[in-house]
């Protein structure tokens, strides 16, 4: 008895609204949620304001 049934991929849920992801290869249910997530990411961890402190060793 051969069981050659491929395992179905894990059901992905949209991190924004927790709905099932609509497309393969995407964890979002829609482009809108993907944009929202991108916006959060840009506003949050990525776009951290950095104080422009002149470094005497690095300045010319
Ligand atoms: Zn969504």
Automatic annotation (TrEMBL):
InterPro entries: DNA_gyrase_inhibitor_YacG, Znf_NHR/GATA. Gene3D superfamilies: Erythroid Transcription Factor GATA-1, subunit A. GO terms for biological process: regulation of DNA-templated transcription. SUPFAM superfamilies: Glucocorticoid receptor-like (DNA-binding domain). Pfam families: YacG. Keywords: Metal-binding, Zinc. GO terms for molecular function: DNA topoisomerase type II (double strand cut, ATP-hydrolyzing) inhibitor activity; zinc ion binding. Binds 1 zinc ion. The keyword Metal-binding applies. It comes from the Bacteria. Zn(2+) binds at residues 14, 17, 29, 33. Its cofactor is Zn(2+). Interacts with GyrB. Belongs to the DNA gyrase inhibitor YacG family. Inhibits all the catalytic activities of DNA gyrase by preventing its interaction with DNA. Acts by binding directly to the C-terminal domain of GyrB, which probably disrupts DNA binding by the gyrase. This is DNA gyrase inhibitor YacG. It comes from Falsiroseomonas stagni DSM 19981.
């Amino acid at each position: 008895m051969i069981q050659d049934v491929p395992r179905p991929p894990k059901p992905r849920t949209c991190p924004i609204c927790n709905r099932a992801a609509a497309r393969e290869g995407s964890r979002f249910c829609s482009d809108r949620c993907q944009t929202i997530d991108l916006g959060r990411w840009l506003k949050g961890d990525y776009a951290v304001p950095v104080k422009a402190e002149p470094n005497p060793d690095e300045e010319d």
